[in-house]
Specification:
The protein is α+β, with helices and mostly antiparallel strands. The protein contains three helices and seven strands; from the N terminus they run βααββββββα.
Length: 139
């Protein structure tokens, strides 16, 4: 399993950061490992979607549960990745704390690449959080 926990302080209110991270269609702008997203259905705060990831242009299915202005929980339900990615957003004085937590593994034969992929996921996550920070602080 690849367990990755990272966070960033953002000098912007929770509402502004939430507007950025909850726009699921814009995820590829910030998350370089996500090449494309396609929402299949919405049912209240649950979204089912297909994403194309950078690793061999693999397609994965996700079930995303949204807790407004607090958490986005993405469970990988089909495809080469198994597990979850969670974004937690917390108010901190006049700013925000954004945490990203991954608990994933590569399925099937790709499982042998989990260690290598972990470095890419960590690097991509740190880059995404920095990009989200820059966007929120400049808005």
């Amino acid at each position: 399993m690849a367990i990755i926990d990272t966070s960033i302080d953002i000098n912007a209110p929770v509402d502004r950061v939430w507007d950025i991270i909850s726009d699921l269609d814009n995820e590829p702008k910030f998350w370089k490992g996500t090449k494309e997203t396609r929402i299949i259905s919405r049912d209240g705060n649950v979204v089912t979607r297909e994403i194309t990831i950078a690793f061999r242009d693999s397609k994965c299915m996700q079930k995303i549960t949204i807790q407004p202005k607090e958490k986005i929980y993405a469970e990988f339900t089909e495809g080469i990745i198994k597990g979850s990615k969670t974004l937690n957003l917390k108010p901190k004085d006049d700013s925000s704390l954004l945490e990203a937590n991954w608990d994933v593994k590569m399925s099937g034969l790709a499982g042998m690449f989990t260690g290598m992929i972990k470095k890419h996921i960590r690097s991509g996550t740190e880059q995404a959080l920095e990009s989200i920070k820059q966007k929120a602080e400049s808005s």
